[in-house]
Design brief:
Chain lengths: ~500, ~110
C-alpha cells in the first residue's frame, strides 16, 4: 500500500492542529511553519500526478478494511490533478497572506491548513459519506476564513453563506441516507455497481437522492438558481482567502463530474444520464448571467467573482455534454480558470491598496504607484479570462467549443461567444477605468510588496505555462477523462484491489 | 412505529423549514436545528427500525445495522458544532449590524 496518497490530507491536518496547540509561537514562526507545509504539498502533489499517470487507479484502504466495507482513498488522474491545482493555488495564497493579511484575525494559518486538508480529502476520497465529512471540514474552515478580518460586510455575507451551506449539508445527509437505505453501501465504486442493477421499483427514490446530491453540489459550485450568495461572499473576503476560494466552486464541479460520471453515468441502467437534462440548460444560463453580472459589477473583486461564475457555467456545460473530449477540454480550462481567478483576486487587492480612498471601486481614482507592472499583470489575467489568444484561456474555450457535437453546439457556441464578448467589454472597461481614468490626486506612496507580486505572477504565469506544456497536458487530461468516463473499470480497480 | 416515525420527521422538517424562512436570525437558527434533528432521525431510520436487535449478527433474532448509527453519530457531532458556530455568528451579527435581521437591515 502506498502511504503517500494520504499525506496531502494528513500533512495540513496535523500542521493545522499543531498551529492551534502551539498558539504561543511567535507569529513569524507560525508563518514559516504554515508556509513550509503548504509549499511541501506542491512537490507531493506533483509526485501524485506522476504516480497516477503511470499506474492504473491506486487505492488506499484506511485501517486495511477491505474495499466495500472500509473507507478508502482513490487516486486516479482526475483527483491527482485536482490536488495539484489546490496545492499551487494554496501556496500562492499563503505567500500573499504571509505579508500581513494573516495578522488581521486570530488563527488564520490553522484554518487555512484545515481548509486545504478538507479540499484534498474531498478530491481523494472514494466514499460518499467521507466526501460529506471532508465537505464539512472545508466548509467550517471556510466559514471562519470568510469572516477573517472582521467588518460588517463580511459578517452579513458570511451569515448567508453559512446558513445556505448548512441547509445544503442537511440535504446531502438525506441523499446519503436514501442511497444507503436502498443500496446498502456508501463506497462510490460499489454504489456504481449497485445502481446499475436497480430495478424499476427503487429507481425513482434513487433518482431523487441523486438529484438532491446535484442540488448540494450545484450550491457549492454556484450554479444558476443557487449562485446569489457568491459575489457578495467572494468580493467581501480577504484577498488570500478569496484566492483560495477560487477552488471551492471547483470542488462542486469536481463532485458533479465524479458522481454523475461514476454513479449515474452511461452504464447506470435505468438511471443513466440522470443529471444531464437539468445541468445543460442551467449551466448555459449561468454562463450568460455571469457575464451580465460581470458587465454590471461596480467593484474589481465583484467583477472577478462573476468571472468565477462564468467559468463554472462553462465547465458544467462542457461536463454535461458527456463526451470524453469535452471533459478533457473542461479539465484544461479548469486548471486555467482556477489559477487565473485566484491571481486576479490577489491582484485586485494590490490595486485597491494603491488607489487610496477609491479602493477597488470601478470609478475615477488616483494614479497607481506601479501602473506598468500591475497593468501588465492585469492584462495577462484579463486576456486569459476573456479567452483571447495567445493565452491558455483561449485554448481552453476553443477545446470546449470544438468538442461540442452539432446539436449542442447550436446552443453552446452563441452563448459562449456572446458571454466572452461580454467579458471582453467588462474587463477592458475595468482595466481602462483603473489604469487610465485617473485624477490628479496623490497616489499612495508605498510600493507593492515583492512577495505579493510574486504570488500574483506565479498564478498569472499559468496562462503562458499551460500553453507551453499544452501537448503533454492535454494527453494526460485525455487519459484522465477516459478514466472518469469508464465507471466499470474504476469499480473493478477499486473493488478488486481492496479484497 | 414507522407511521409515528414518519409523522414526527414530517412535522420536524415542516416546522424547521417554516422557521428557516423567517427574517430574523434566532428563528432561522432554531429552524436549522429542527431540520438537522429530522435529518439525523431520518439517517438513523435508514438502518430500518427494529427494537431489541443487537448490532452483531447471531446475537439476537433480528440484528440492527450499526453503520447508520455510526453515521448519525458523526452527523450529530458536525451539526452540533455548526449550530454553535452559527449562534456565535448571529450574536456577532447583532453586535456589528445593530439588528438581528438576516440581511443585516432592520425593517
Amino acid at each position: 500500500m502506498n502511504h503517500v496518497i494520504i499525506l496531502p490530507i494528513l500533512l495540513p491536518l496535523f500542521s493545522g492542529a499543531a498551529l492551534l496547540l502551539l498558539s504561543s509561537m511567535t507569529s513569524q514562526s507560525k508563518r514559516y511553519f504554515s508556509a513550509l507545509t503548504t509549499l511541501l504539498l506542491v512537490p507531493l502533489s506533483a509526485w501524485l500526478v506522476n504516480t497516477a499517470a503511470h499506474d492504473e487507479i491506486v487505492t488506499y484502504t484506511l485501517g486495511n478494511w477491505p474495499a466495500p466495507f472500509g473507507i478508502l482513498l482513490v487516486l486516479d488522474r482526475l483527483s491527482a490533478i485536482m490536488v495539484l491545482i489546490t496545492s499551487v493555488l494554496a501556496s500562492a495564497a499563503m505567500m500573499y497572506a504571509c505579508q500581513g493579511d494573516d495578522a488581521r484575525g486570530p488563527n488564520f494559518h490553522a484554518l487555512f491548513q484545515f481548509q486545504v486538508a478538507g479540499l484534498n480529502g474531498a478530491f481523494l476520497t472514494g466514499d460518499l459519506f467521507n466526501l460529506y465529512v471532508f465537505f464539512e471540514i472545508l466548509l467550517i474552515a471556510s466559514y471562519a476564513l470568510l469572516l477573517h478580518g472582521g467588518g460588517k460586510e463580511r459578517t452579513s455575507a458570511g451569515l448567508h453563506y453559512i446558513l445556505l451551506n448548512l441547509l445544503g449539508s442537511s440535504l446531502f445527509l438525506v441523499a446519503v441516507g436514501v442511497l444507503y437505505g436502498l443500496l446498502g453501501t456508501l463506497n462510490m465504486a460499489h454504489l456504481s455497481v449497485r445502481i446499475a442493477q436497480v430495478g424499476p421499483d427503487d429507481a425513482p427514490l434513487i433518482a431523487a437522492a441523486g438529484l438532491l446530491l446535484l442540488l448540494v453540489f450545484a450550491l457549492k459550485a454556484a450554479l444558476l438558481p443557487l449562485y446569489f450568495w457568491l459575489p457578495k461572499a467572494y468580493a467581501g473576503a480577504t484577498a488570500p482567502v478569496a484566492a483560495l476560494f477560487a477552488v471551492m466552486t471547483k470542488v462542486g464541479v469536481y463532485s458533479i463530474l465524479r458522481i454523475y460520471a461514476l454513479l449515474f453515468g452511461p452504464d447506470a441502467g435505468l438511471l443513466a444520464h440522470l443529471a444531464q437534462p437539468l445541468l445543460w440548460p442551467l449551466a448555459l444560463l449561468t454562463l450568460a448571467l455571469g457575464s451580465i453580472g460581470a458587465l454590471a459589477a461596480r467593484q474589481l473583486q465583484e467583477l472577478v467573482s462573476y468571472l468565477v461564475l462564468v467559468s463554472v457555467g462553462l465547465l458544467l456545460a462542457g461536463i454535461s455534454l458527456g463526451r470524453i473530449e469535452s471533459v478533457s477540454a473542461c479539465l484544461y480550462y479548469l486548471i486555467n480558470t482556477t489559477w487565473i481567478t485566484g491571481g486576479l483576486f490577489l491582484l485586485s487587492d494590490i490595486i485597491a491598496r494603491q488607489r487610496g480612498e477609491t479602493e477597488a471601486r470601478l470609478e475615477k481614482g488616483p494614479v497607481l504607484r506601479q501602473p506598468m507592472l500591475l497593468g501588465s499583470l492585469f492584462f495577462v489575467g484579463a486576456v486569459s479570462m476573456a479567452g483571447l489568444p495567445p493565452f491558455s484561456g483561449f485554448f481552453g474555450k476553443l477545446l470546449i467549443l470544438k468538442s461540442a457535437p452539432l446539436t449542442e453546439a447550436r446552443w453552446l457556441w452563441p452563448v459562449l461567444l456572446i458571454s466572452s464578448l461580454g467579458l471582453v467589454i467588462a474587463l477592458s472597461r475595468a482595466g481602462s477605468t483603473v489604469f487610465w481614468r485617473t485624477c490628479e490626486d496623490k497616489a499612495v506612496q508605498a510600493k507593492a510588496n515583492g512577495w505579493c507580486l510574486l504570488a500574483v505572477a506565479v498564478l498569472m504565469s499559468a496562462s503562458v505555462v499551460l500553453v507551453v506544456v499544452a501537448k503533454p497536458l492535454t494527453l494526460y487530461l485525455d487519459q484522465a477523462a477516459q478514466q472518469i468516463m469508464s465507471p466499470t473499470a474504476y469499480a473493478r480497480a477499486v473493488l478488486q484491489e481492496g479484497s | 412505529m414507522e407511521l409515528l416515525f414518519a409523522i414526527t420527521l414530517g412535522v420536524l422538517t415542516a416546522s424547521g423549514v417554516y422557521l428557516m424562512l423567517r427574517g430574523r436570525t434566532f428563528p432561522v437558527v432554531l429552524g436549522m436545528t429542527l431540520v438537522t434533528y429530522a435529518v439525523n432521525l431520518f439517517l438513523f431510520a435508514m438502518g430500518r427500525l427494529s427494537t431489541g436487535g443487537a448490532p452483531i449478527i447471531g446475537q439476537s433474532q433480528m440484528y440492527a445495522d450499526p453503520l447508520p448509527q455510526a453515521l448519525v453519530l458523526t452527523a450529530i457531532v458536525i451539526s452540533f458544532a455548526m449550530t454553535a458556530f452559527v449562534l456565535v455568528l448571529s450574536i456577532r451579527a447583532v453586535c456589528e449590524l445593530g439588528n438581528d435581521h438576516v440581511d443585516g437591515e432592520g425593517q
